Predict the 3D structure of the following.
Amino acid sequence: MEGFVYGFQRVPEHCHRWRFFGKNLFRSVMDEISNLPLPEAFLNFLEENGIDPSIYTASDSTPRYVRLKPGCEAELEEIEAEMKCKLRKVDWLPGFYSLPPDIQIANSKAYQDGKIYGIDAASGAAVSALKISPGDHVLDLCAAPGAKICMMLDLLGDSGSVTGVDVARHRLAACRTILQKYSLGDRCRLFVADGTTFSLAPVRVDSVSRSCESAFEDKDDKFREWTSRRPWKERKRAAKAREAKSSQLVAVLVDAECTHDGSVRHIQKFEHWGWRTLQRRVLDAERTDSLTVLQLKLLRNGFRLLKVGGLLVYSTCSLTVAQNEDIVERFLKENASAELQEIDEAEGWPCKCGRIPKTLRFDPLTSQTSGLFVAKVTKLAT
């Protein structure tokens, strides 16, 4: 087998696993997409990571997705007439509809009136895997730009709460704008904070009365000065108390920062941004190494805040093993109370299994969605 590298071969298994085969067929696939304006360095990156390059030919046929706000179902025909296109129901994901890829929703009246919002079906699947129910307290540790939080709040209905965290203030500001647009801010708090160290109890059900406007806080700045004046032992006791309260969280989503190589539309933007930018953001080895460190820290902290018996979903829009299965395997090895769960909701989902059991992968060819890796973990009593 000397001289062979990873490629893909579809095998007739229930979960659509992919096996790897030799360099010759991988190169033949690359020859077929030679008309794409992808630089050689990126094609080498795909080859080194065992990523099927033909997914980047599927963008023109991959539909856009929207979620219809609950209560607007009766207005579907009116929305279709105004947008001049058919909204096709996504049978495997309730509340979702697909549109032709060339349709822009931002200028539509339905979007401006808050009746629909754009969210890829794969991202919706990751939220669905959390099994959110009314009354739950939910944490989104990488919350921007906000579509996933909108879906969480839709699922919660009139009870429960969502706490959204993001390290970038400008991105979280966009998230706040979206929540206000869809009138979903009453049960949501947003914090500008480092998701690897964030620690704050969920808001009580009977106290969620303020809007996300007033709850938009810089948590790190707010607490840093306060804690620095307190004795070390007192700070430690307070931290333990906050962690105990945080254990009310029954669902945590860690949709971690990544190289975004599974998002075909994102990669295509580099044609305009410049391929040198792709080199820096995606292909640079030091950046990739720093991302995997960040991803593991986010996963650790999200799990720390999770209630015993609760569910955590880890996802990225990268297709590399290093940012997905390797992170999950390392996390499981160091956390005896963490158990990988079967994603029962995935029955009928158009996805394939990941490299380790019970994990899932979406991609444009298999799923007609953006690329996404999904793993679900529960916390066991110790």
Remarks:
- The first helix runs from residue 23 to 32.
- The domain at 38-61+120-197+225-381 is CATH 3.40.50.150 (Rossmann fold).
- The two ends are 46 Å apart (CA to CA).
- The CA atoms of residues 50 and 246 lie 39 Å apart.
